[in-house]
Specification:
Strand order of the largest sheet: 3-4-5-6-7-8-9-10
Bound molecules: NADP nicotinamide-adenine-dinucleotide phosphate
CATH topology: TIM Barrel
Strand content: 5-15%
Largest sheet: 8 strands, parallel, barrel
Structural class: alpha/beta
Distance between the termini: 41 Å
Length: 335
């Protein structure tokens, strides 16, 4: 983007240039374009994290055209703190850019005690989004997800709640996450009948975890829905950081239940082989893992996490090298 105005300020120029640094893909057949790389706030934005660092990561994201930020009611820890911190940073940095941002939140996992703070009831979803909006200081989110399927609540009730939320003007679009292929098709049918703008499925997808390929990607293609891939780096395993063991500043070393040291050590030989391949392609392993996803037609955006701006700057370069030879794809498939 060029601005032919001699009086343009450095700030305006920087602002215009950020959109040249990113590519945007259509989300299914909707009107929405999403950056090929989006930023998730599951880790590194909570009450125990350094707020200044979180702010730096968000600013780096925006300066590189990453305009989609993904949150959930329970991101932290403690629950709610990522939304609260995001709200503070938003107030300071992004208020004037609100219409340039695509902000998502979710509900579906454990959030508050008692029978109404979990799963997929109308009661839970509607009050949870109200709480999320208050924490973030927003009037609406661009996208609201049901975070996981609820086997004990009728799907109609959950989908009706999403419909209600859109009709209230509290979310512009809706999505679902972690739904299997069959339930996704059913949800899509209900939301179509209700004329709800259901645009996207958020699913775990990486070189190490390809469950979506067993039916879900077919459903999403058929239903013209977007797919945003979460944990694309398998929580950091698909990067160069674990090549020689487990560094102390890594997610695995923090002993979170989500990424165990044993899981990393078990995968290490495969990680080393993939790192060799990425090197031959002239990429970091993180970049190759993201490029591999971006090369797939069904993937709208790759939803990365980052514990530093440097990591995000590394990951963002993935968009420039998404061509793979058949031989490279074969190695990855059989890794
Ligand atoms: N819908 C759901 O159920 C669900 C579930 C999980 C996540 N999500 C969403 O997906 C987002 C991403 O998930 P994730 O954090 O697991 O994703 P990820 O991208 O697979 O892992 C991110 C971690 O990898 C490491 N890393 C990132 N970039 C790197 C680089 N270039 N070089 C070296 N290391 C790098 C960092 O870990 P270190 O801390 O070790 O540096 C970072 O925190 C979440 O924030 C959330 O928004 C959704």
């Amino acid at each position: 983007m060029k601005i032919n105005d001699k009086a343009i300020t450095a700030e305006q120029q920087k602002h215009a240039e950020r959109y040249d640094k990113m590519s945007y893909s259509r989300c299914g057949k909707s009107g929405v374009l999403l950056p090929q790389i989006s930023l998730g706030l599951w880790h590194n934005f909570g009450g125990n994290d350094d707020l200044k660092k979180s702010e730096d990561i968000l600013k780096t994201a925006f300066d590189n055209g990453i305009v989609h930020f993904d949150l959930a009611n329970n991101y932290g820890p403690p629950y709610g703190s990522a939304e609260r911190n995001f709200g503070e940073i938003f107030k300071k940095q992004f208020v004037k850019h609100r219409d340039e941002l695509f902000i998502a939140s979710k509900a579906g996992y454990d959030m508050w005690p008692g029978p109404y703070g979990n799963w997929g009831s109308r009661k839970y979803l509607i009050s949870s989004l109200d709480q999320s909006l208050e924490r973030m200081g927003l009037d609406y989110v661009d996208l609201f997800y049901h975070h996981r399927p609820d086997p004990n609540t009728p799907l109609e009730e959950t989908m009706m709640a999403l419909s209600h939320i859109v009709n209230q003007g509290k979310a512009l679009y809706v999505g679902i996450s972690n739904y299997d292929a069959e339930t996704t098709a059913q949800a899509s049918q209900i939301l179509r009948e209700l004329k709800v703008p259901f645009i996207i499925h958020q699913a775990r997808y990486s070189i190490f975890d390809r469950w979506v390929e067993n039916g879900l990607t077919d459903v999403l293609t058929k239903e013209n829905k977007g797919l945003i891939a979460f944990s694309p780096l398998a929580q950091g395993m698909l990067t160069d950081k674990y090549l020689k063991g487990i560094p102390t500043d890594s997610r695995a070393a923090r002993d979170l239940t989500y990424l165990q040291k044993e899981t990393v050590l078990k995968a290490q030989q495969r990680i080393v082989r993939l790192a060799d391949l990425s090197k031959a392609r002239g990429q970091s392993l993180a970049q190759m893992a993201i490029s591999w996803l971006l090369a797939k037609e069904v993937v709208t955006s790759v939803l990365v996490g980052a514990s530093s701006s440097e990591q995000l700057l590394d990951s963002v370069q993935a968009i420039h090298n998404c061509d793979f030879t058949a031989e490279e794809l074969d190695i990855i498939k059989n890794i």
